[in-house]
Structures
1.
Amino acid sequence: MQVVESREDLSWCWSAYFLLIPFGLPLLMGLVISDLPALCLIIITVIGILSGKTITFGKTEAWFTFFIGCSLIGLEILQVPDFYLRELMAMLFLFVCFKITSDFLDSRERFDKAVVLTGNAMAALLAINTITVFSYNTLAQELTGFFFTSAKLSWPFEFSGQLGISLTLLFPVCLCSRSFPWLQRVLLYVMLIVNAGAIASRSVFWLCLFEIIYIEFFVYAKKVAAHNILKGLGLFCIMAALIVFFGEDFNFQRSLGQLEASPLLFDEPRMMTLRKTLQTVPAWIQGYGLGCFKAFNELEIHNTPLSILVETGFMGFISAFMFIVTIFKSIWWIDSAKHQTIKKGLIISFAAILFNGMFRNLLTNRACWFILALCYCSRHFQKDLATDMATTLQKTTAAVKTFSEESHRIP
Amino acid sequence: MENTPEFKLTEIFQLARKHRFVGLCCLVLCLFLEVWFYNYPPRGVVGEDMLIAGSNMGNSLVDLNSLWARIVNDDALMLEIIDRSAICKHTEQSKRLSFLKRSIRQDLKFQIENNTIVKISFKRPASNQVRPFLNYFTDTFVKKLDAIGMEGLELRRQSASVQFANVIERMKFVASIFSISGIHELLSDYSNKPLQTDKILAVFQTVNAGSNIGRVLLGELLPQYTAAGIHYEKYFRNDMQFLDLFPRSSVILTSRNMPATPVQPFYELIFILCPVAVSLMYLSLLIVLRARDSQDRCDASC
């Protein structure tokens, strides 16, 4: 395996890694297909470290370390160590992937290539799934059954929710990495809406709509009113056409908000789960231990902040919050002049993580960690404040000097 | 150049020397956690008492579920046990009752195995609070169990005794009417003798043919005599090996000094996990402080 030396090139291993990010085909022992190149990259990195390459640590890594420290003193770790170890290993693996990805993407060229590869893979995935959905609703229902879990579109993931998260997180950053012509954008939007509708998740569907509208009106914005009105009408027509086409489909109806018999909000199973979780307040000081809550309560908390709070306690929650804040700061300080579009894309993806986190547990979600890595690598594209300051200082000193010289010359 | 200050792991020793106070705080925290978990293991400690409830050949003399409910829900009795074991420092009645409800009743459990073996378990945060209460509680439980059990046993004994005496009197009556000799001696003082079925049968072999009706009638009574005799012996004989397994009065099997054990199986691991956790926190704090220092330096130089 060859380690990449050039800052512009990607080795086959990195290319495979970025290409397989949207694909979560399950393999053995909880691993998915995209983990294979990741494992190769980890081995390469370890060899690099052993042969003298240094790695650096910042606040983000520090807060993650603190988080792991907090998780180690969980209440129930000793009772169900297998649950804890599984979750911990998954998180450590994803964090290592996060770290090596964010360190590797230290130039805009690499970043763009990586995002293009992932974007192309995602577009291919959208295309395959769109064809499947159309086939499922028309002709070859039996042939396409493989793509669905419980009548919901899930391929290439085990569950439809994972596909939804992957699409909503990767879509904005891929669409904002380069400029797409309008026809390609429309095609991508249609495919995304069809996929989101077939996933049968309300949060995913409405988030996709929000992303499309935001990208169209803020990223690809033009300051011509007629153009914007036409754009809005076009989007509306696409939506109307899709609703007419898929109106009868239950998944699509559910994505729009339709529920069968249960009342809308407070008696939903997830709300009941949240209520049950809130009843375990006394355990929050210490936390149950990562992944240990479900071992005792036989339910999964579909809310990432609450899950962190319950499983790692208040200290763990604060460290996780600081971890996210440091990553957000690295996006916030991106040099807007040079990287305006990608900054917007990263912010939308980041917002999508926060939104999805309200409805699902994202602690071990690969797409989520990948987006966090992309956000964190943007620390390489920040304004060089120190250089700017020094230049400004030099200029000011020179100006003051000149002024004082001039003033001395004046009789 | 990036604005986020980063550092190499090799700098860690320099940083540790620089931020000694943080290291000291982490050391204190680590020691505190070790001592805390030594005294208060996660999820507490549990003490167990195993006892065999008094029974008649495995048939429990008392409804154990009802007795448990009666004792555990008796506030006065439970408060008395709490006072004797001195595990509640509150003196106000309302606080003591609250302690009873929240801390004692929730953590006191019992389980019945094979009708007669009772396992009483009591969970507390610290091990020194378990035994005093559990010993007093088990004693009280056994006292009540034996008192009620003996009452029941006495009634059953009377019933068995009357049944056996009835059969014996009928046999004596038949033997005297038909002048079957030898029976009276065998059936006299029945309470101190084992069953005489074999000897009675032997008497039947020896009597003359003139008392055939008497032999038939005695033969009819013999199964009743044997059944009633066996039933009687169950309650009165004290030399049976069976009594080791099913004693008539309750026996506490667990030693009174048996220490409470942590609820969690790999409890000792916490003494390794705590230092590891604090070390990770220390490392992360050093990195954060290093980042802050370099930020300050940058601000100062600018």
2.
Amino acid sequence: MYYPGCSVKDYAKVYEETALSVLKLFNVELVELDRWNCCGVVYEHATDAIMQHIASLRDLIRAQEFMNDIGDNRLVTLCSMCYNTLKKVNEIVINDSEKLKNLCDYMDDEPKYNCGVDVKYILELIVDDSIIGLNKISSNVKRDLKSLKVAPFYGCAILRPKGIGIDDPEDPHILSDLISSLGAKPIKFPYEKKCCGSYNVVYDRSIVERTVSEIVKAASRWGADIIITTCPLCHYNLNLVKSKFNIPTIYFTELMAYALGIDDKIPPETLLILRSKFGGG
Amino acid sequence: MFKGLAQTVYELSGKNPYLCFQCGICSSSCPMIKDMDIPPHQVIRMIQLDVQEVLNCKTIWVCASCNTCTARCPRDVDPARIINVLRTIMQRKNVYPLDLRKVKGLDEFPQIALISASRKLTG
């Protein structure tokens, strides 16, 4: 099952298009939920504010209804913030039956949630050998990217907190492994897991400009040609300073599509960037 | 169990602020520290000492809940959660820093920025 979320349907449309076409190449089909709503992004920390979990729980219930139709309980997201929120709320209601009961009682027009949905991030599918796996990806690479130096930028939402993150929060490697399997050179730089400033961009742009400048400058000092990311908000924030350091940020699926030769889904500006960074093509 | 602010924080977060022994790893890891007025470890100290003024600091709004401090805290104090709870206390008093009506160029932001900003920075 596939939960898109708002950004992937508009701001990050290219992320969705490239991701779905890459998965299709490996015969993995994501079936979009027939109904979904906002994930209620940024899960609530206050223990008594269970109202804030309603949006996410409603999505999980939609997935529960849908999973019997397609016979699979995995709910995959592309947006890392949606992943973080849905996974956390799923964990909260699984571990706290009283909260789940209160929420279900409140939403009495909805079926009861029986905690059977498994929230997954798209990268987990890509690196899982039983689904795609990095070996299968390397053997399908159509372009020689070995001169391309790519800095992975993980962002917060897929690494932290513990239990939610899909990789080591201090020393992540999932994106570097992916870059290597595509034949490009991964850059290990110190700010790969630093926060980009997130929604502070709406509140005070200068805060985010400072943090992303530090990140992109470090990537530039470590010799990166481009940065790849997993999160639409990191993508927006990091690209605020792309011209300052001449390092654009693209979604990891755009790089995958390029390496695998699925050019028709890649937006012309990304193609132009990749070709200029990487002669020929 | 506790008194004053520490008790409120404990009830709302489920985390014990007195476990903090001021090692400062939260503040040294924090990517937002340059824009904060009080570093995170001092916020926790002020809660321990029941200094109510901590609720008026800029730090609680600038924190982006990136959870770096939480991942590194050796005492499992969960500073990100505690700071977020201070924010919640203020939001429930109808005090918050962002008025979306005054933000220019709203339609240029990705949806995710607007939704998370309205959840975290408005009432």
